[in-house]
Amino acid sequence: MRRTHIWTRTVTAVTAVAIALAGALVVAAPAQAATYTALLPAGSKLYPGDSVTSPNGQYRVVMQGDGNLVEYGIGNVVMWASNTANKPGAVAVARKDGYLVLTMNGVIFAKWGPNGYTSKGFSVEADGSMRTTDTAGAVRWQIASFQGRVPAGTVLTAGTTLRTDASTSCVLTMQADGNLVQYTNGRATWSTRTYRNPGAWTAVQADGNLVVYRADRKAIWSTKTYRAGGGQLLLQVDGNVVLYGKAGTRVWSAKPISTMQWPVVSRVISGRYGDDRGAGHVPRYHQGTDAAVPIGTPVYSSGPGTVTKTVANDPSYGNYVVVTYGVTTVLTAHLSKIEVTTGQTVGAEQEIAKSGNTGQSTGPHVHVETRVNGNLVDPLTVLQFR
């Protein structure tokens, strides 16, 4: 029989649901599920459907019925998963010796953290990070999961922190005093100047407006972009806070936005976006724009961004790199050499590759392909020649 921790745990009736995650189908949760606030005390267990939420209610870790332990962020964004979606009925245990473990029929099949100390338990923090602490409050193990983008229709409550990466060098915090503040290396670099309003929160509205509301629901600051339609708010790796509208266009930013650059120092175009390449080509219509440059020409990032994909020897694209800049991705293909790795943060003028003639290429060039919110667009409408 499960023990009930009255001060941390509530039991609610839930509707059985099926959620697709990493190619697996989540088994429906039981009719009764327990929710712990902030802390899963040492010695306690999460059964299928049980969860631990952060103190501000923005992040939650769920023991799913398929055996996957998953952290969800603002707008149900998946921030972390144990990738154990083949263990239906598994249980998570915050052990008193310090380990966080997953068990199946009493047998441990996954574990995290050091042991050998008296644990206070497993907690989910206001910034989304997960940790175990000892009885003195010292952190013994942590997963620095983070969220840097939030969709329209969500809110940032007091104490919520967004981050660009696992570090704390660039954060956006909805403070308890009502001020929405960006910090860079510990220094405040931008704010809404709405302090002295305890209990205030920030809404990323479906109409495209970003609004700070006082506790009595009175708006005290906004971007005045209510006609932009629901998009998303991003804390970008370039250190800018940017609001995007429904069409994926930037409608507001805390700092001026730099123009994204063409990846090579050349204006010679050998193939344009939308060109009909004739029957037999798949896809028939050209999805990008080609820059005709000699093999070995430096290929640069289009701005500060994150490398989200690197592929070698693709049958069509050859060697290629994808870099994400906010809601825009830039793919450069047919490369002779890739000089970055997936997950790497790149600067505005950083060399990421050398041009080549790999894959289905009829001559030396760089194929440039851009997507905004996942939709193909003409690169020459997004990128500016160097």
- Sheet bearing the most strands, described? 10 strands, antiparallel
Helix percentage = under 10%
Q: Give the uncertain stretches in residue-range form.
A: 1-9, 11-29
Q: Measure the end-to-end span.
A: 67 Å
Number of strands: 38
CATH A-level architecture of the largest domain: Orthogonal Prism
CATH homologous superfamily grouping of the largest domain: Bulb-type lectin domain
- The 3D shape can be described as globular
Overall average residue pLDDT: 90
**Helix-strand category:** mainly beta
CATH topology of the largest domain: Agglutinin, subunit A
Beta-strand percentage?
A: 35-45%
What's the total helix number?
Answer: 0
CATH class of the largest domain: Mainly Beta
The Cα radius of gyration reads 24 Å
Number of domains: 3
